[in-house]
Amino acid sequence: MDRNLLFFCSFCRHKSAEDLSKITCSIEHSVRTYKKGEHIAYQGDKVSFLYMLMEGTVKTEIVSETGMALSVELVNAPHPLASAFLFADDNHFPVDVIAVTDCELMLIAKNEVESQICKCFGFMRGFLAYNADQVQTLSERLKIFSQRSIKAKIAYYILRRSKNSNFELERNVSELAEYFGVERPSLSRAFSEMARDNIIELSGKKGKILDMKAMHEIQG
After folding, report:
1. How far apart are alpha carbons 19 and 15 in whole angstroms?
2. In whole numbers, what is the pLDDT of the chain averaged over residues?
3. Is 51:105 a contact under the CB 8 Å cutoff?
4. DSSP 148
5. Are 134 and 83 spatial neighbours (Cβ–Cβ below 8 Å)?
6. How far apart are CA 162 and CA 158, in angstroms?
């Protein structure tokens, strides 16, 4: 069985190749390939399938009415695309999806996903958990965008990831700048100023909050 078919299944996705070879479960699907730079989907396209990115990397962008494109994220295989919208009443792509490298996608029809949810509790649980996590991620992005200053965005992001004043950024500065929707030099400068003012110390992606009160005041 193709491991990409098991992305959502909490029962099977960590099984060995030997154990998987004994599983007869299968999902009807088709495969499409895209060249680097091709659009896989446009904002507003109907989500009629569960799109599973099997190979390659894609980027997602929100395009405003004025034509301005805001980069949302880079997605690496294996990873589903817009799965949370498959069963929505308004089931349309909220973003443009563009191939950053040559890509291969698996397309699973909506009725096949419904059938698998009914047949396999592990698939249902994994599908629901993944989409819930995506909603939480979107909620964080919206909260970050609502912060007025770059330092406030940094403070919110770090505080969400801190434990006993220690934190790990999870992304490098370039990735964070894209995630925050700000320029990389401006983000680097804000980090430097917060370190200079002894609010945080940072080494690579790991750091420590030195002044918790100041962090909360920055976040507002």
Report:
1. 6
2. 87
3. yes
4. S
5. yes
6. 6
What CA–CA distance (Å, rounded) separates 187 from 181? 10
Three-class SS of 98-145: EECCCEEEEEEEHHHHHHHHHHCHHHHHHHHHHHHHHHHHHHHHHHHH
Do residues 41 and 97 touch, judged by C-beta distance below 8 A? yes
pLDDT in tens, 33-54: 999 999 999 999 999 999 999 9
Q: How many CB atoms lie within 10 A of CB 89?
A: 5
Residue 175, both tokens: 């990735």
Question: In sequence order, what are the residues at sequence separation of 6 or more whose Cβ sits closer than 8 angstroms to the Cβ of residue 16?
Answer: none
Query: Are the C-beta atoms of 9 and 20 separated by less than 8 Å?
Result: no
- For residue range 126-138, list pLDDT tens digits in order: 889 888 888 887 7
Tell me how far apart the alpha carbons of residues 189 and 186 are, in angstroms, rounded to a whole number.
Answer: 5
Give residue 122's pLDDT.
85
pLDDT of residue 1: 47
From CA 86, how far away is CA 50, in angstroms rounded?
7
Q: Which residues of the chain have pLDDT under 50?
A: 1
| CB contact at 8 A, 144 and 157 | yes
